[in-house]
Amino acid sequence: MTIGHRRINVMQKMQESLPGMSLDELSTFVAVVEAHSFTGAAKVISRDATIVSRRMGQLEERLGVRLLSRTTRKIALTEVGTLYYRRVRALLDELESASQEASNFASSPQGLLRISLPVTFGRRLIAPRFPAFLQEHPKIRIDARFSDRYVDVVAEGFDVAIRVGVLRDSSLIARHIASFRTLLYAAPSYLAAHGDPQDPGDLEQHACLGFIHYASWPDWVLKRDGQQRTVRPASSLSADNSESLLQAAIAGAGIVLTPDWLANVAVREGSLVQILTEWQGSGGGGIYAVMPPGRLVPAKTRLFVDDITAAIQAELD
């Protein structure tokens, strides 16, 4: 039985067995029995003795029976009070145990972690972290969904979604992981054959590789120190997949404007170099982890976000 089902069953038992009762009244009753006085119970529940007396009166009135036998010297359970105490004590203990298990579950890294990831970014920067993360946290299971669709985190039951670009206004919890830029790259072989552009206007004479999902395409909007230039490059290839354009650029097919997180490995390996280094595209932005609203973030989610934040920041340094 899951913690959630167990807790629901406990509450159903409380409602079925104790109609109309409040947990305050029940806990007060148990405190009176175990402290052997109203004054002692008042100290236990941090309330005035008058409140203890009133709660006991309400409880007995609702039940229609006397639970306690009161004298000037002591308080004792009646026969029905003894039976009632045993049942209430057991139910309160069960509820406390279920609540503790739920708290432990929330604070320790375990359970299913549902993640929404953009296809290219998720495959290149986050998916490689899965094996090590699962090895470090063997009680966590991952359900990763790769899609460039803007998912509804709450309605679709995701624990976290990674978003790249400009973050929309939202009631979700958002954590900024890193920033990225879109830059111009070409293969050394292409530059050796066609020359190195010295000005954005030169791109009109070069084979360029266009990502059709850029809002400005077929134009490239480039920025430098508050200056902006819009150019229409000579497009030898356009596509809706940035990885295919990157591979074409590595093969020497032309110049590509692409995010630095996508090109970094090729730059380190020497298969691409940055050109027009003072200029960058208008398509940069942030990398964010967004989570359902609420004050408490489960440990499994917090650990995952911390892990990928460190990995992504190291990649973009």
TrEMBL record:
CDD domains: PBP2_CrgA_like. GO terms for molecular function: DNA binding. Residues 21-78 form the HTH lysR-type domain. Signal peptide: none annotated. It comes from the Bacteria. Keywords: DNA-binding, Transcription, Transcription regulation. Belongs to the LysR transcriptional regulatory family. This is DNA-binding transcriptional LysR family regulator.
